[in-house]
Design goal:
The structure holds 2 protein chains of 2 kinds. Chain A is of the alpha/beta class. Helices cover about 35% and strands about 25% of the residues of chain A. Chain B contains 3 helices and no strands.
């Protein structure tokens, strides 16, 4: 019944949903005569376009990522951006002499988002055409439209959460972390021990619901049932006496990962049933899902309750199925596609000693 | 592939992920640690790819993956050896 995932690669990259709406997740800027007036290689005294810092900072606060595709000398251009106080706003800037279609593709790949979620802004019709030809899914915008940019519906996210405001910084922490991990010579486990991780989980507050909805909508590979829940449904569960909605967050010495995990439990006198367990793909190598499950095992055992879990196995959430099975869950019932698992609570491990765990429910 | 070659490949893979100074073939490395999802997935994919077997839902028991011996036993069973 479970399809194979064909390569190890599929486990490492977190497949993204095809953009269900037109939302743009990353704006890629040209520099000469777009971000600034003038051509840097001809005039070192280029001046910023009107309102540019405000536009860049507004997009950043909305959680929209930004990058650069510019044909320029990399070091000179970055020094100029630094002079303007804007260098920190751009992820994976592509400043070189390659075609801009390669630049946008490299950016989408590095950030790990669908190329159809990118917008590219350039004053040169030639560059826009070149990108449009090779990457037709990229939204190409003429620099003359920059003044209207903040009003464009594609650049108005439905919600702006705390995690949106820090999204770019979370990516930057990831870049530093990944750099260290790639250089690290020990085992994965030894690397995790160097991170100084701190895991927290608590009942969702009203302020967590937007992020919770975003997590259910954005995450499917690590979602045990594939169900998505609306803000209203989540709010109902949050306040229902028969349910628990718990939200998890993770921090380490490089910074915060934000709210990265969610679980929905149905609770009665006899058992807790995990209706939904999901985590952000950014933390799938961090053991967060196992910590959540371990907590539920300990808590139900202490209360003398059974622990059940619902899962709809498919080729995309195989990792969650394996996580459950390796955490001593066994299949006890099938209802169509839905599989019910029950936990054997006889042997429960401690939390890893390299993670500080604080949980309340 | 001899059993010893299979075991050596398994040991090398495991030791890239978890700290076990001298991994014994019957050592249950999951007894004392939580399994992270990524490692569990990578372990299953490693077995499928390296030994060209398909791990089915019913094979996904921790007892098939918790030691070098149990993985090599699973591989042998999936390849139709080990049964008389």
């Amino acid at each position: 019944m479970m399809n194979q995932i064909s390569s190890v690669q599929s486990a490492q990259t977190c497949a993204h949903k095809p953009a269900s709406d037109n939302a743009i997740k990353c704006v890629v800027w040209d520099l000469d005569n777009t971000l600034w007036h003038g051509v840097l290689s001809e005039d070192s005294k280029v001046t910023l376009r009107r309102n540019m810092p405000e536009i860049i900072k507004s997009l950043d606060r909305r959680g929209i990522l930004q990058s650069i595709a510019s044909k320029n000398d990399h070091d000179l251009a970055m020094a100029k951006l630094e002079e303007f106080g804007l260098d920190e706003y751009f992820l994976y800037p592509q400043i070189n002499w390659d075609p801009k279609s390669s630049a946008v593709a490299a950016i989408a790949q590095a950030i790990n988002i669908g190329i159809d979620t990118l917008a590219f802004i350039d004053d040169q019709p030639f560059e826009r055409e070149e990108v449009k030809f090779s990457q037709p899914a990229v939204r190409c915008i003429d620099a003359t439209q920059i003044d209207d940019l903040l009003e464009m519906p594609e650049l108005q996210p439905r919600f702006i959460t705390k995690d949106s405001e820090i999204r770019r910084r979370m990516y930057q922490s990831d870049i530093r972390r990944n750099g260290v991990e790639n250089q690290f010579s020990g085992t994965k486990e030894e690397f995790l021990a160097t991170l100084g991780m701190s895991f927290k989980m608590a009942p969702a507050g009203e302020e967590d619901l937007k992020r919770a909805e975003e997590l259910t909508v954005r995450t499917h590979q690590l979602n045990t049932t594939g169900y998505t829940y609306s803000y209203q449904e989540l709010d109902f569960f949050r306040t229902s006496p028969n349910h628990k909605l718990l939200v998890a967050s993770l921090d380490d010495k490089y910074g915060t990962y934000g709210k990265i995990g969610l679980t929905l439990l149905e609770c009665n006198q006899e058992a807790w049933t995990i209706k939904l367990l999901l985590m952000s793909c950014r933390v799938m190598s961090r053991g967060v899902g196992s910590i959540m499950i371990n907590y539920l095992r300990l808590e139900t055992r202490n209360k003398g309750l059974r622990l059940l879990a619902e899962i709809i196995p498919n080729e995309r959430n195989r990792m969650m199925y394996i996580t459950y099975k390796f955490a001593q869950f066994k299949e006890i019932e099938k209802q169509g596609d839905l599989v019910i698992l029950e936990n054997d609570q006889s042997q429960i491990q401690d939390y890893p000693d390299y993670v500080k765990v604080e949980i309340s429910s | 592939m001899t059993t010893e070659v299979v075991k050596e490949k398994i040991r090398t893979f495991i030791q890239g992920y978890i700290q076990v100074p001298e991994l014994k073939d019957d050592e249950d490395y999951f007894a004392s640690r939580l399994v992270n999802s990524m490692f569990a997935m990578q372990l299953v994919l490693f077995v499928e790819k390296e030994f060209a077997v398909q791990v089915e839902s019913e094979d996904l028991e921790i007892s098939n993956f918790n030691s070098v011996n149990s993985i090599s036993g699973l591989v042998a069973r999936k390849n139709g050896v080990g049964h008389s």
